[in-house]
Structures are given as C-alpha cells and as structure tokens.
C-alpha cells in the first residue's frame, strides 16, 4: 500500500514567514517549525472530504467523510459503509457529518440518514431514526456535556437531548410555539457546563437553552453576532467562541463581545472570514479552520487580555510546510499531541511542538533551495555556514541562521568554475577557501569570494581524478584519498599533490588520525591500513591478519579516545578494532543497527557516534557498546546515507546527507525515552478468515478483539492468526514487531514490520500471547492476550475418567482373560491327560473285548455245531423254529465278534491293505441289493445309481465292502419310515465317487466334526444307539486308500456322505475278478426279518390280558411261546403303538422294552401312569440296561417291576403272576373305604390312593345321576370321560365288577346312607335310589350287607 504520508517538503515558521513564501525559513527549519503530513484516498481513506475527526479510548483515529466512516491505526484504514443486508455492520448513511465520543466510549455518528451509535467493544452499529423518536433523520452535529448528556442538532426540526441511547428532551423549531428555536437550520451546538446549551444556526444566529428551566432564548442580532454561524466552542474559562461567515466572535465570561475579523495583513487577524471549526491546541492556542484561508492559530489568552489580533497563518501549500488545502473542515487534538486536520483533500497531521529531526530537501518552487537531493559531502565553514556538496547539482553554501543559499556549479564556458557538479568530498582551508573533490573531475580549490577554482589531480582514474576523501592532519598536512588512484599528499611549495607509491593504487573512502600521528585509511577491499608517512611504517588490518575481521570493504572510520578504531563496513555492520590486541567486536542489525552497511559516521559533543546507514540513522555509545537507531522518528529519510556526508557543527547539530536530502538534529533535543504508543490487537483470523466480534463471546456477551483479555478456541481451531498494531501517528514507520506464545515459544519471533502472529498446530492448553512493538532499540511497547485452546473431549477430565475406567476394565478383563487362559491351559493339560487315560482305558477295553471275543468264539462254535446237527434230526415244527432262531442269532453274534476283531486290527495298524485291481461296479451293486430287504422292512426306499460300464480300481475289496456296509447300515438305521436313501457311484478324473444320501433326521451342526471320532455317539438320536466305531473305522479305511470322506447335513434335512477314492494305486497284483459276494456270510443270513406274532385270545377261559411291547419281533415270538397258554396276548412293536393299544384294550398287565422307536419305554410308562384309564395297570419293563440310573428312572416314572435282559423265562412268568396277584389283593383296598393300608408299600399306597380317588369320582357321578334318574352306562362313561370298554376293563380290574354291578352297589350303599342318616323308610329309600320294587331291593340289600334293611339301625349301632 502506498505510504499514507506525503513526503515532507520544506517547513516554515509562524506568522510573517507564511506571508513570504520565498523566505529561507520555509526551507531550513528551526526547532519550532512544523511539518504537515497528508493522508488521503491513496492511503486508504474512504473519501477525501473530511467532515469530522475523533479518537477513541484505545487511540484509534476515526474519520467521518462523505463516503462512510474510516478507522486509522497509523498503518492502514478500515472503512465502514452502509450495509443494506446487515444494518449493524455499518452506519445508517454514508454521509457522516459529525463524530462524537461519549463517556461510554461509544461513537455517535451524525448522518443524513439518522443517528448511528457505534460500539467499538462489540463492533456493532445501533441506529436511531424517526422510527425511534428522532424529529428528523438529518443530524448536523452533536455535543456532549460533562454530565453525560448528548445533544443532537437536527436540521429542519430542532434539538434533542439523549441520555445513553434514549431521547430525554426535545426543543422544536416551530415558529408558532412560545418556547421554540428560531431557526430550523441548526449547524452547531456547545455545552457551557451542564446547565446551558448554545445553539448556532445558519440563518438566525445564536440561541441559548437553559436546561434547568428548559427556556429557549434567541440572542438578538448585533454588529458583533453573526446570523450565519458554522461552529461554536466553549473554552474552559467560560468564553464562547463563535465561528461564522463573518469571522470569529467571542462572548466573554463578562458578557463582552469581541470580534476577530478577516484582514489582508498576515498574522494580524484571520486568514479567511468563513470559520468552519475550532480545536483547543497546545501552548494555550486555539486552532481555527477556515473555508478558503487554511488554518489560523490564535493565542487566546493574549487576545482576550490585550485584544491583540496577532495570529499565525498556515495557508495552503503542497510542500508539507503547511496545510495542503485551503478548506479546513475539522480539527482534532489527539492524545499524543498531534493535531489532525480535516480538509477537502484528505487529512493533514502536524505536531504542534515541532519534530526533533528536520529534513532539508530540494524545493523547486523556491529559489532558496538546495541544488539536489542527493548529498555527496558536507563540511562546516568557519563562519558557521555549511558547505553542501551534491551529486549532480554542484556546491551549495547554506547559512542556517539566515536560511540563505549560495550556489556554485560547473559552467562549461568558464574554465575557472568547478570541474563538474558531482561533489563527493569537501574540506575548508584555513584561508576560507574550500577543497571540493569530484567524481572523476579531480580536486577543486574554490574561492567563495570570487567563485573561481583551481584544479588538481586531473587526468584518469589512476591519476587520482576520483577524490573520495580530503583530510588535514594535526600537522596541517593535506591528504587526498582517491578511488583506485591511491593516496596523495599536498606539497605546498609546488602547489601540487604527490602520489604515495608505498600504498599503491588503492581505493580510499575515509581517513582519520590517531594521537600518535598515524593515518588510518578506510579502503574498499583492502580493509583498514595504518600508515605513518614520516617513518614509512604500514600495517594492514583485514580478514587475513585479524581473526574475526568480518570484511575488507570499509566506508567510514572514527578513532575513539582509548585508541580503538570504529569502522563502518559494507554488509557486515559496525566493527570496533583494538589495534594493539588485534581483536574485533562486531555490531549488526541484531544489536539495533538500522542496517548493516555503515556509510558515514560522526561523533557528537556528548560521546556518541552517529551513523548514516543504507537504511536510516543509527548511533553507537562507545562507553557502553550499545547501539540504537532513530528510524522511529518522523522525517528520517528511509534511504541510503552517503559515504562521508556527515558533520557535527560547532553548535552541536548533526548533519547527515543521503539520497533524499539532509537530516538535521540536535542530539541534546532528542528524547530517547520509552514511547507510549498503544499496542492493540485488531483482528482474529481462523483459516485466514476474520472472526466477527459476535463470534468471540458466549451467552450473548461478547467484545471485539481490542477489548478482550483472553480468547477461547476449540481444539480444531489451532490454525489461527492475531493481528496487532502500534498506534503511532501519523505513520507507524519502522516499527519492528515480534510475538511470543508462552510457554509454547521460548524466544521472540520477529515479524519485521508486519504485526501478525501466525500460529499453527498449537496443542490445547492455556497460553499468554505476548506481542512487542519496537521503534528504537530498547524502546519497546508490549501487550498480551490470554489464549485458551480447549482440549478435545478425549483429553478432558471426564475422558480421563472414562479412560481410567476402561483401562481398569481392560486390566480386569486381561487378568480374567489370563486367569481363564491359565485355567484353560490347565484344563487342556487335564483334558489331555484325561484323553490319554481314556485312550489307555479304551485300549484296555478293546483289548479286553478282543480277548473276550476270541474266548466267545469257542463256545459259539460249540453251540452252532450241535444246533446244526439238531436241525437235521428235529421233526417237530416248534422245535425246528426254535433251533433256527438259535442258529441265526448265533451267526449274527459271530459276525459281530469278527467286526470287533477287525476294528482292533485297524486300531493297532496291524491290518495291511490287500490292494488288488478289481472290477468294482458289479460287487458294489450286489452289496446295495442286499440291503433292499432291510429297507422294505423299515418302509424306507433305497435306490442305486451306477455307471453303465464296468471300471477297474486298485483297492482292498474287503475293506471297501466294510465301508459300503457301514454307510448303508447307518443310513437305514436312522431313517424314518417313508424316507429315501440314495446310493450313487460315479467316475471323475482318475477317481471314483461314492455318495450315500438320505432324507432322514440329519445331524446337528455341533456334531458334524465329531461323528468321525472314535467312540463318539451323537445325542441327536437317543433311541438308536451304536458303538461309536462304524464311521471312525470307515474314515480310517478310506484314508488308508488315500481317499477322503465329506459330510453335509442339516438337522431335519438328512445327510450326504461323499467318498472319493483313487482308481489307480501302486500294486503288483493282476486283475482279480472275484466278488465279495462269494464270502461266507450275507446280509440275508444275518438279518432274517420275521413278522410280529398275532394277538391270541382263549375264548373258553377267562385269562388275564397281557400287552407285549418290543421292536424286536423275535423277542415278541419268544414271549408269545412263553405266555400263550396262560394269558391272552396282544402285541405292539413300538411305544406309541403300545400306548394306543393299552388305552384301547385296558390289559391286565403290560410288558415293555425300554429302547424302542417313536416312544421309548420310559415315556410310555410316564404317559400310562397319567392316563385315567390306565393308571391301575401293572407295568413291567424289560431292558438290556442294568445300571442303577436306568432302573431308578423306570421306577420313578411308575414302573411296577424291572427285569434286565437276558432274562429267565420262569422268573418272568413268576413275576407276571405275582403282579397280577398283588393287583387282585388291592381290590379290597379299593372298595373298602375303611381298610387300613399300613401293610402296603409306599408305591402301593400311592396306587391305592389314586384308584380310590377314581372310584370316589365315579361314585359321585352315579349318586348325582340318581337325582336325575339317569344312571345308564353311556351317561356314566361320558361323565368319566372314558369309553365303555375302558371303564368296564378298569372297573373289572379294580372291583371285579362290571359297570352295572358297580352302579347297583353304589345305589344300595346310598340307600343305606339315607335310611341311617336321613331316617327314611325302606320303601322310600328304595324309590330314592331307583328301585321300583322294595322286595327286590331288600333281596339285594341282604346280599350286599347280609341283613335286611329293617335291621340296619341295630346292625349299624352294633358296628
């Protein structure tokens, strides 16, 4: 951005100097001369026409223009304009007529559209218009009282007073009202204390409002009070200053009226009669801005006391020595003492106390000006004048006391003029003549009186025509140092210069002399050279001779009191050389230099060394080795100062020449003290986007960044920037900014002249952001802001509690897991030992069974051989049938023994495969056909699918037969009636595949991986138990053939076994065409199914009915042969059928096996003992299970007896007879209600109690039906919920009576009850129980009780 300051031209003094624009004082200032700076739209101002200026509590300058509100911070402007979308972001109208800062630190903006109240703390605007109670929206100005009230001048309507943001009083301008203001065109307001408000108007002059009495008093027009009033000012003494279109009028405290008119004599009145504004300035002066005459400064105390009209004028000029425009519309004295001047071309800023450093530059508008801004050399004459050598403008002689300048320049036509105009070195002779060295023009000796010159060192560069320094030593010897021409000594006898050959053609930039008479030469590229002309001694000090010497380009020298050499280098800063010790100290920008190139240096009268650098002015204090700079001051040229252009005058002033003129200052007048520039934060940016003030607070309370003491950010807002600025005016030039986030940073981060702290990836925490502004070394201003970055939830205390809880849980879970793993490991070890023990036990068991099986073969052989012989001799069919049964079961037992032995062989790996090449389709088909009979018996469909052609495989055919038998027998064993078993044989890629698939109950998923384990028996089919060997043996045999077996099954959807075997294996045997079907046994031989016997009844004898239940038909045949002579027999082949027949026939006794399909014996027993019709039937269980648990379970479910297989026939018949006899004995307990049952067992007592309850229920139904006169058998059966047969059989078993007999018995007993208890007669009792004949009743009664009914009372009494 372009600098907001216009370059300072020449300043001039007060009063008469302004009347004489060509006066030398206008260009060579004194300490009391002023410099004006310009800020306009090019600097960022919203508009050049400035109506009002104000300063807030932080120090920001606020400017009201025709195009909005501008805020200035010394560096840039921030503009606020009307925002139609967001009304609180800008003023209500862009034409800002007046700004007033209230005691609440709010800005009241008087606009054409109403009143806007801006709160800097919230960065929000609040608007007041006619809708909020204003008379009109055009507000011309405001005024504030000491009591906090604010007056609004409303153009065309009147005056309103506000307290805070509310209107509290109104003074209208209606002419017909008695207490009204005389004019609608109100232009100005001024409070006098808290009780008087002065009102100025454009056409009706002045009015006075007494705020206590609310009385309006117009001030009558006089010759002294103008009718056209522009502004009012009430001074602290109580005087009212009136700025009008006719000059200034003053109403004093004594009620006198004074007039300060316009004059044409500068300094004796006003520069213009149209006064627009007032402002109290320093030194008791009043500053008045005019419409066409610029600025007039009035010494108020002198004027009021003496009526002296002496004033100071600042008429418009463009060189910075006065205001830049004729119209001064507003004035504001800032807190730092600067006067801010609003004009129609921008803002002018001036320090009324003057700047301590002045800048002399060329002013082409004046004749009394230096010839060129680029200064090549300076020296002081004995007449207190200053010689100025310019680089291109010749030589000037400047008289500081008079400001006069005399010019000397090269004239081509005059050979006695300067050789050229590029003057780069100067030295005055004792006779007043001046030596002037030029750039490639040699050396000139100028006589100021005549202006003529004598020329020396003419020629080429090697001849010394480029003279860079002229020096006179303590002996009066004159020396000239040249560029690449070496050192020359002036020899007065010959009036010429001698070349010093000893040093060579070196480039000399500066010369100094120590107290020993040695010359010290600053050279370009040769370092520092100490040279004694008298002795010829020469010593070099450079990077090759002195350790730590930074560089060999030296521009300036100064010899300190202690003999040290101070040298200014190019790029390497300032060096302090100890020539004796040959040690070097270096000072650079890090130590406070404004630049590391030192072009010139000069000591002042106070011991400091002033340095002209390539970027400003610095100083060095040899006593403390401290460095500082003056770049924070106004008027310091920010450019390169030139080599050798530096002098200290006899008056103590320092002159430093550079490329932009001459800086002049008195070191004693510089106040090197800590600045009071406010350092404020201006903006917060997140992801480079500005954060509005309303987003910085919570719960509706917020403040803008400059007013905050802390900011709080979320954890995801760790990339942020904070802008800050030092409020230094008129421009914050040469402010070096730095910041440090404590404790995140351990050092200051320099940002040069950019006031921005860029922070990224800052961890959550609480920090202090410290910012620093440095205008000079050790001249710092600091501010700080607390920054709190909230941690994410996972780094908060609640999260840590959760972590601790989770960690504790994990530790607990880990410990539990470790404990479980340890237990599991121990369990596995225990399980392993258990399995090992089980394996050993199984080995012992198998070994035992194998040995036992071998032992069984001998007695079996001895059984089978005699049976075969008996079959040949037996003639009785009954005997033949029994012998055949013995033979078949003996063969089956022999085959089972052989299987057990084969399994043992497999376990011991002692059975080697007998691999031979066989045609296998035919034998496998035969094996499947052998199972067709068994399948039909179980009502299971067995189908086979085989290849159409025969193929050969290398197998052990006997082992393959075992595999097929096991798979088919398993399928048929577990399938249900009407299920389907499919056997399929196929060829596939050198292998043959056998698939056995059924639609049976299937295997649950948990058992799929375990069915191939040895001895494993699935619990899914409890009614069909095996040995747990078949599938394990099958898998072993398949693996021995290098094959595989797979099982797929879903519970309820059947099983599918798939066997894959290689067709070819290594064997030396030829093709074997024998068939396993020729072996010594067949399935038909072992499993010959016979039908169950048919029911048998003895029609002539009343034998007990026995129900026999067993799924083995041979057992049923055996029991039939055993019992058919003494009992009637009915049969059932499974538990469900047995239950149905028991309910249907109500047998006298039931014999049942336990292990049966559909319903086992235990379930059958449980249901029979809960059925009303069958509870009385004795139940005898037959089972091969002889363990205590099985027997106990049978008795718990109600079994009356338990006999284990194999059983003895005589014992069985005896047990049946015993159960029937017991049943008969229990009848007395059933029918005799008073019978004692102490002799009964516990189970018998339970049975008697249950049957007595049954009989009691039946008796209750019969007696109930007596009253209904309906005791027929069908009704009684229906009431009991039993069939006629079931009830008959049960009553017969319990009472040995049929239904009618039992009903009659109940009637007789009830009649006896009626005779005995109800005192009824015999005939009446007989009729009550359904007997129509008393005679027949007496007969039955006597049969029942043994006496007639008439003897009942006596008999009952006897009983």
From TrEMBL:
The modification 4-aspartylphosphate is found at residue 1153. Residues 1105-1220 form the Response regulatory domain. It comes from the Bacteria. It holds the Pfam family Reg_prop. Residues 851-1065 form the Histidine kinase domain. It catalyses: ATP + protein L-histidine = ADP + protein N-phospho-L-histidine. Its EC number is 2.7.13.3. GO terms for molecular function: DNA-binding transcription factor activity; phosphorelay sensor kinase activity; sequence-specific DNA binding. This is histidine kinase. Residues 1-19 form the signal peptide. Keywords: DNA-binding, Kinase, Phosphoprotein, Signal, Transcription, Transcription regulation, Transferase. Residues 1256-1355 form the HTH araC/xylS-type domain. InterPro entries: CheY-like_superfamily, HATPase_C_sf, HATPase_dom, His_kinase_dom, HisK_dim/P_dom, HisK_dim/P_sf, Homeodomain-like_sf, HTH_AraC. PROSITE patterns: HIS_KIN, HTH_ARAC_FAMILY_1, HTH_ARAC_FAMILY_2, RESPONSE_REGULATORY.
């Amino acid at each position: 951005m372009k600098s907001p300051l216009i370059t300072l031209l020449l300043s001039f003094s007060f009063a008469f100097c302004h009347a004489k624009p060509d006066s030398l004082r206008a260009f060579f200032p004194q300490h009391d001369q002023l410099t004006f700076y310009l800020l306009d739209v090019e600097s960022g101002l919203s508009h050049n026409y400035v109506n009002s200026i104000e300063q807030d509590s932080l120090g920001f300058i606020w400017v009201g223009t025709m195009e909005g509100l501008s805020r200035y911070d010394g560096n840039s402007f921030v503009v606020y304009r009307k925002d139609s979308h967001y009304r609180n972001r800008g003023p209500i109208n862009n034409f800002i007529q007046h700004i007033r800062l209230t005691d609440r630190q709010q800005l009241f903006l008087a606009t054409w559209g109403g009143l806007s109240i801006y709160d800097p703390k919230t960065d929000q605007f609040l608007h007041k218009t006619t809708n909020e109670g204003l008379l009109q929206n055009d507000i011309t100005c405001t005024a504030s009282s000491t009591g906090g009230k604010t007056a609004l001048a409303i153009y065309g309507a009147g005056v309103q007073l506000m307290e805070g943001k509310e209107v509290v009083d109104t003074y209208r301008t209606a002419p017909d009202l008695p207490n009204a203001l005389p004019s609608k065109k109100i232009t100005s307001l001024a409070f006098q204390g808290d009780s008087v408000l002065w009102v100025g108007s454009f056409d009706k002059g002045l009015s006075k409002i007494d705020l206590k009495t609310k009385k309006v008093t117009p001030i009558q027009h006089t010759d002294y009070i103008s009718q056209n009033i522009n502004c009012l000012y009430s001074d602290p003494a109580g005087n009212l200053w009136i700025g009008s279109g006719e000059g200034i009028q003053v109403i004093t405290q004594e009620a006198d009226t004074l007039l300060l008119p316009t004059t044409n004599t500068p300094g004796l009145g006003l520069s213009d009669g149209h006064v627009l504004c007032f402002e109290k300035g320093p030194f008791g002066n009043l500053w008045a801005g005019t419409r066409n005459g610029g600025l007039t400064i009035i010494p108020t105390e002198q004027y009021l006391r003496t009526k002296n009209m002496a004033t100071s004028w600042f008429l418009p000029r463009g060189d910075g020595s006065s205001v830049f425009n004729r119209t001064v519309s507003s004035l504001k004295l800032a807190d730092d003492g600067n006067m801010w001047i609003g004009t129609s071309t921008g803002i002018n800023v001036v320090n009324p106390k003057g700047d301590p450093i002045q800048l002399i530059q060329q002013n082409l508008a004046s004749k009394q000006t230096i010839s060129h801004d680029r200064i090549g050399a300076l020296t002081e004459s004995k007449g207190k004048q200053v010689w100025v050598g310019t680089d291109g403008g010749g030589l000037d002689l400047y008289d500081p006391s008079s400001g006069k300048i005399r010019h000397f320049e090269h004239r081509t036509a005059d050979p006695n003029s300067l050789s050229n105009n590029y003057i780069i070195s100067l030295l005055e002779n004792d006779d007043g003549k001046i030596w002037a060295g030029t750039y490639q023009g040699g050396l000139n000796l100028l006589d100021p009186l005549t202006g003529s010159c004598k020329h020396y060192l003419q020629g080429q560069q090697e001849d010394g025509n480029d003279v860079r320094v002229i020096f006179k030593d303590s002996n009066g010897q004159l020396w000239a140092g040249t560029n690449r021409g070496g050192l020359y000594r002036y020899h007065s006898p010959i009036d010429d210069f001698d070349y010093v050959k000893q040093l060579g053609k070196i480039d000399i930039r500066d010369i100094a002399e120590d107290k020993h008479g040695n010359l010290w030469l600053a050279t370009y590229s040769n370092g520092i050279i100490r040279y004694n002309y008298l002795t010829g001694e020469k010593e070099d000090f450079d990077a090759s001779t002195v350790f730590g010497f930074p560089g060999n380009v030296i521009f300036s020298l100064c010899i300190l009191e202690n003999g040290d050499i101070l040298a200014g280098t190019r790029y390497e800063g300032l060096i302090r050389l100890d020539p004796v010790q040959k040690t070097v100290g270096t000072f650079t920008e890090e130590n406070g230099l404004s630049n590391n190139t030192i072009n010139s240096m000069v000591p002042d009268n106070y011991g400091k060394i002033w340095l002209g650098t390539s970027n400003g002015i610095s100083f060095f204090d040899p006593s403390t080795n401290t460095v500082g700079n003056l770049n924070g001051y106004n008027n310091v040229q920010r450019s390169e100062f030139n080599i050798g252009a530096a002098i200290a005058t006899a008056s103590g002033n320092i002159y430093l020449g550079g490329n932009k003129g001459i800086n002049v200052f008195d070191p004693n007048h510089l106040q090197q003290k800590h600045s009071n520039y406010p350092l404020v934060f201006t903006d917060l940016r997140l992801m480079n986007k500005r954060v509005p003030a309303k987003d910085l607070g919570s719960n509706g309370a917020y403040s803008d960044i400059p007013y905050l003491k802390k900011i709080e950010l979320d954890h995801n807002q760790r990339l942020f920037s904070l802008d800050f600025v030092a409020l230094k005016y008129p421009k914050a030039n040469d402010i070096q900014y730095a910041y440090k986030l404590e404790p995140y940073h351990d050092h200051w981060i320099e940002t040069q002249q950019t006031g921005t702290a860029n922070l990224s990836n800052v961890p959550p925490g609480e920090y202090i952001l410290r910012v620093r502004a440095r205008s000079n070394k050790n001249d710092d201003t600091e501010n700080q802001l607390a920054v709190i970055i909230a941690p994410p939830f996972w780094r908060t205390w609640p999260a840590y509690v959760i972590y601790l809880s989770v960690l504790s849980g994990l530790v607990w879970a880990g410990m539990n897991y470790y404990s479980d793993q340890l237990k599991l490991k121990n369990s596995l070890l225990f399980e392993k030992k258990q399995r090992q023990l089980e394996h050993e036990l199984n080995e012992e068991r198998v070994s035992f069974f194998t040995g036992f099986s071998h032992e069984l073969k001998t007695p079996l052989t001895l059984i089978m051989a005699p049976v075969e012989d008996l079959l040949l001799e037996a003639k009785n069919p009954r005997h033949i049938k029994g012998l055949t049964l013995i033979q078949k079961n003996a063969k089956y037992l022999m085959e089972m023994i052989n299987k057990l032995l084969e399994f043992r062989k497999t376990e011991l790996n002692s059975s080697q495969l007998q691999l031979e090449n066989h045609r296998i389709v035919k034998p496998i088909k035969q094996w499947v056909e052998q199972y067709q009979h068994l399948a039909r018996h179980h009502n299971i469909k067995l189908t086979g699918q085989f290849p159409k052609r025969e193929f050969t495989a290398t197998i052990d055919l006997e082992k393959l037969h075992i595999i097929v038998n096991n798979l088919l027998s398993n399928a048929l064993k577990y399938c249900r009636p009407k299920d389907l078993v499919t056997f399929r044989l196929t060829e596939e890629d050198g292998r043959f595949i056998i698939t056995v698939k059924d639609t049976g109950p299937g295997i649950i998923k948990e058992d799929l991986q375990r069915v191939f384990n040895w001895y494993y028996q699935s619990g899914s089919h409890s009614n069909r138990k095996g040995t747990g060997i078949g599938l394990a043996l099958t898998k072993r045999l398949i693996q021995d053939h290098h094959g595989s077996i797979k099982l797929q099954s879903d519970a309820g959807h059947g099983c599918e076994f798939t066997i894959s075997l290689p067709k070819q294996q290594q064997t030396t045997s030829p093709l074997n065409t024998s068939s396993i079907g020729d072996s010594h046994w067949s399935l038909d031989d072992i499993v010959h199914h016979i039908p169950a016997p048919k029911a048998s009844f003895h029609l002539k004898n009343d034998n007990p009915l026995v129900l026999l239940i067993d799924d083995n038909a041979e057992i049923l045949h055996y029991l039939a042969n055993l019992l058919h002579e003494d009992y009637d027999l009915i049969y059932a082949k499974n538990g469900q059928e047995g239950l149905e027949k028991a309910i249907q026939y109500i047998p006298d006794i039931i014999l049942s096996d336990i292990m049966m399909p559909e319903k086992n014996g235990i379930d059958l027993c449980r249901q029979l003992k809960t059925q009303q019709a069958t509870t009385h039937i004795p139940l005898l269980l037959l089972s091969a299970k002889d363990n205590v648990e099985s027997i106990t379970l049978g008795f718990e479910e109600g079994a009356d007896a338990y006999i284990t297989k194999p059983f003895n026939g005589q014992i069985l018949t005896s047990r049946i007879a015993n159960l029937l006899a017991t049943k008969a004995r229990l009848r007395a307990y059933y029918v005799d209600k008073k019978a004692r049952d102490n002799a009964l067992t516990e189970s018998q007592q339970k049975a008697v109690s249950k049957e007595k309850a049954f009989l009691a229920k039946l008796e209750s139904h019969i007696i109930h039906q007596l009253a209904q006169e309906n005791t027929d058998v069908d009704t009684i059966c229906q009431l009991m919920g039993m069939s006629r047969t079931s009830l008959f059989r049960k009553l017969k078993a319990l009472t040995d009576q049929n239904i009618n007999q039992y009903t009659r018995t109940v009637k007789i007993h009830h009649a006896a009850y009626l005779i005995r208890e109800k005192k009824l007669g015999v005939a009446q009792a007989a009729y009550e129980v359904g007997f129509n004949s008393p005679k027949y009743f007496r007969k039955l009664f006597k049969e029942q009780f043994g006496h007639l009914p008439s003897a009942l009372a006596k008999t009952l009494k006897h009983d």
